[in-house]
Amino acid sequence: QVRLVESGGGLVQAGGFLRLSCAASGTIFSFTAMGWYRQPPGKQRELVAHITFSSSTTNYADSVKGRFTISRDNAKNTVLLQMNSLKPEDTAVYYCAASLRPSGLELGVPAYWGQGTQVTVSS
Predict the structure, then answer these.
(1) Which of 42, 88, 47, 43 has the alpha carbon at shortest distance from 65?
(2) How far apart are CA 67 and CA 86, in angstroms?
(3) What is the mean pLDDT of each run of 10 residues along the chain (123 residues)?
């Protein structure tokens, strides 16, 4: 059974930084990619960043390019999201997700979700 457990959310002032961590356990060898979605209050969930397992290719939403960095720690089966220069509009619940199929995250159909972690950026 696969589990994705997020940590690292919290409250930070605008311009600050946070690092989110997603620890994966279970049968993860079949993952094609992992990534992070976020859902701001009253809005739809959006894909923020993801990283492929075959080539470690990374992709970012335009709204976070240059500020957020996604990376993998293979030894710990962990995916990290370093978030710098945070803005109030980054406030959202952030969800870790994993896909078993190509483009699964981009299509919004990951196979597994974490429980979410709240990120709040004050102005």
Answers:
(1) 47
(2) 8
(3) 95 98 90 96 96 92 98 90 98 97 89 97 96
